[in-house]
Amino acid sequence: MGFRVAIVGATGLVGGEFLRVLEQRHFPVDSLRLYASDRSAGRRLPFAGEEIEVAETDESSFEGVDIALFSAGADISRRFSPIAARAGAVVIDNSAAFRMDPQVPLVVPEVNPEDIRSHQGIIANPNCSTIQMVVALNPLHRVSPIKRIVVSTYQAVSGTGSNAMDELRQQTALLMDGKEEQIAPKVYPHQIAFNALPFVEGFLENDYTTEEWKMLQETRKIMHEPNVPICATCVRVPVYISHGEAVNVELSRPMSAQEARDILSKAPGVKVLDDPRANLYPLPIWAAGTDDVFVGRIRRDVSHPNGLVMWVVADNLRKGAALNAVQIAEVMVKEKLLSTSRRR
Ligand SMILES: NC(=O)c1ccc[n+]([C@@H]2O[C@H](COP(=O)([O-])OP(=O)(O)OC[C@H]3O[C@@H](n4cnc5c(N)ncnc54)[C@H](OP(=O)(O)O)[C@@H]3O)[C@@H](O)[C@H]2O)c1
Question: Fewest CB atoms within 10 Å of the CB: 19, 51, 65, 282?
Answer without folding.
Answer: 51
